[in-house]
Amino acid sequence: MKHRLILLLALIAPCVLHASAPSRPNILFIYTDDQSQRTLGCYLEEGAWPWVRTPNIDRLAAEGVRFTTAYGASWCSPSRACVMTGRLPHGIHGVHLKGVTAKGEAFDLSTAPFWPAALRKSGYQTALIGKWHIGQNAAHGVLWDHSAVWDQNVIKGDWYNDQDLAIDGVPPKTLPGYTTDVFTRLASDFIRRKHDKPWMLWLCYNAPHLPNTTHPRHKDLYTDAEVPTPADVFGPRPDKPGYMHDWSMFKRRPDGQPAYGGKSLPDTIRAYNRLVSAVDEGVGDLRRALEESGQLDNTLIIYTSDQGFAWGEHGFAWKVGPYDACLRMPLIFRLPGAVAKGGVCRQPTTIVDVPPTLLGFAGVTPPHTMHGHDLRPLLRDPAAFTDRAVMMEHIGLRFGDARPEDRSSKEINAKLYVPWWQFLRQGRYKYVNTLVPDEIEELYDLEADPQELKNLALDAASRPLLDDFRAKLHNELKRTDATDLFMPPPPRR
Question: Structural domain of residue 362, as residue ranges?
Fold first, then answer.
């Protein structure tokens, strides 16, 4: 009996709550760019590169809850629109993006009620530091009490040095230094201010987005790290949709190995992870600012990204694809008393679950219906697996106001065009539908086949499961008020 009790205590110890939960906590929402969960040591079980070293972010996970399967939207700007609304792209209205770096207004707050305005109205001080990327107007004074905005439309040089930032709504000026470090310093300064009300800071790093401009202090990291080549970096892939048959963003070198941008795949991946090292150091600096100002245990820390990033899998050096390698990102929460310590949650989730969760902690009613789910019950008890289905979609730079002709739009990159797609994940399976008539559907068992190499949709024995997931996707589209434009075409017979 004694031994059984010891075993029980050992099993539950990693997921206990701290003593008490703060009311209306501060919120530090750290948001990186194109960060695969494989870049973090705490995701070793989920396939992180075994040589990565991220002690500060790993410590957040050890003191809070991390989600093993979290999906971002397929592209940077749409993912940010999902964050600001808590809605999937097809359900967002009033946001219009003409291109990745197009100038001009991109949203109408009368039809796209971004939640920071409601948080601000409730008594929070709101701040944005870093990459905005939903048009050039970040709505300082309406969404944000304080802002230091990096505008991707006016990028200088290499993205990572001496960039222009617009501070508190004034015209941009150059802030010297390495951008990751500059954002960290500005955020630390904000944290250390004297605050007379709770605050929410959305800190948007541009790392580890390409190009791989490494700070000199990290240039020798991971030099000899071993990097395996993904199995299907080159085609053919006859069991996938037509656009994937021979898709590859890599060139084959004379030795047969893949290269991207003139560099070998291993060298590119090593450099990508060096960018994360600067972010990890920044997280350590932010933690010190919270500790030294006496705010650490009264601050909800959320760490995530806009989406993941594939490096060779299925030929991608990108997000945009419907595959886990492209989209799975880190998602970590820390708040003593409200978030279990050392918890691991295996319930799949998406970026649209973050806003209702954040607002729930703040005690603020969402300003409109959100598609995401409040994750607080899972943060209290990460083992309470709900088996809830989640979906994500790629509709380019379009949203709920799209027109039928937008389905074939190639406004992002005509040479690297990925057609619209949707996927639904539940439990171990993922169903992918490409919104192209008479196209191959995809169904993967992610426990048996985590690399998504075997398409079960083509096996007759999987037909009942395929029919079930097709219906579940349809139900989720209905739940989220999708119009006919976003409904899947008839299945291939």
Answer: 25-390
